[in-house]
Amino acid sequence: MRALFIAASGMHAQQINIDVIANNLANVNTSGFKKGRADFEDLFYQTVRAAGTNASTNTEVPTGIHLGYGSRPAATQKIFTQGDFKPTNEELDMVIEGDGFFQITLPDGTTGYTRAGHFQRDSTGQIVTPDGNPLSPAITIPADATSIQIASDGTVSVQQAGTTVAQIGAIQLARFINPAGLKAIGSNLFLETPSSGTPVTGTPGQTGIGTIRQGILEMSNVNMVDELVSMIIGQRAYEINSKAIQTADRMMEVAGTLK
Q1: Helix (H/G/I), strand (E/B), else coil: 61
Q2: Is 156 exposed, middle or buried (0-12, 13-18, 19+ CB in 10 A)?
Q3: So where are the chain's domains?
Q4: Confidence class for position 195, pLDDT limits 50, 70, 90
Q5: 131 within 8 A of 160, measured Cβ to Cβ
Q6: H-run or E-run covering 207
């Protein structure tokens, strides 16, 4: 009975849908987090009767009979809409207003990309992520710096005791033609993939790259109300598919008791 397998595929699809929604809700307070969305597509169809089949010598049927076999997950993609801004007044907290990613040097030497701008200083004064991965290009804050200023174009300047303000480096951002194709690896990091295209790096505020604002963090772009509504719809769809399996089982039971 087809209904058993069709409904089972629907239950599996809705389980993945709920998994994605649960991950969104779990990261509602994660800085720079981008919500995910599960996309689905229908499975193959069995053609019982093709459209245009001759019904008689002079007529043909206008429509055919095509029986579908359920659904399957096609993709889980990230939605890179801008999240809300949260002022923190911390000198190394930064937000990208517009398109772009901070570049991070990973332990294996590869480059990761993130929208989370909560940076800190390590023991040498280098600007790093909470996991200790340095910002790229590397910028080191002098030990005697009394204040740090980060301009909208990424220029980093410090005020040192008894001296004027001095520029010590500049932050470069990267953008992708298809950010939804990036690979999420956790820790607010993404990796380049063939689908995302190669990164285009440059100065903030130029060539379509967003600007930087200091003392602000970008929060998650998850909308709790939307996610809760989606979760209810997914739950009901899961229940309806389970009812379809129960109904198919009863139909088989009835057929088995015929005499």
Answers
A1: coil
A2: buried
A3: 2-80+222-256, 85-218
A4: very high
A5: no
A6: none
